[in-house]
User: What shape does this take?
Amino acid sequence: MNHIVLLGDSIFDNAAYVNGGPAVIQQLQAKLPERWNATLCAVDGSMVQDVHDQLSRLPRGATHLVLSAGGNNALDNVNILSERAQSTAEVLNRLADVGERFQQEYSEVLQHVLSYRLPTAVCSVYYPRLPDPQLQRLAVTALAIFNDVIIKEAFLAGVPLLDLRLICNEAADYANEIEPSVAGGEKITGTILKAIAEHDFLRQRTEVFK
Assistant: This one.
């Protein structure tokens, strides 16, 4: 029996945002082949460093791990978009500090996940859907710092990457500005199963799924 475990934040733990519709974990369970199982360890509101605690609840018999985390770390630094600065160099230096801190946190968590020696996939952070075009533009630019870390760590570890920026690419994929809708969940779960079915985890070579 294969057993997929979802780790991370509300990208997977989105039940509170789908107005009674199926959450990601329910959508995934409905698509699984016979004798497969899926467990939700992800918790809405979690940051990357919270995944350490989620791993302590890893169910016995887990065979595949999927990690989607980092969006709340980005939100935790959203104030940087409105801070005053004297120069472009000062802005870039602040962004570099944020990126370096996230690099350490994400690397530590991914190494903890990989220590279980189970086939693992990671997800990028998708773009928000903000009504203000200028704020949307700034948010997309700032998220590049976080996604650069995730993509780099995925390549270093040789694990497949689910690029949520390309998977959730329509307004209907969002329940609100930052949470996946039922339609988004359908895309996400379909890509999870595609990655598990098609990726050769023994090669330890990164492949991007979208």
In short: Strands lie at 3-8, 37-40, 64-68, 120-123, 161-162, 208-209. Residues 88-114 form the longest helix (27 residues).
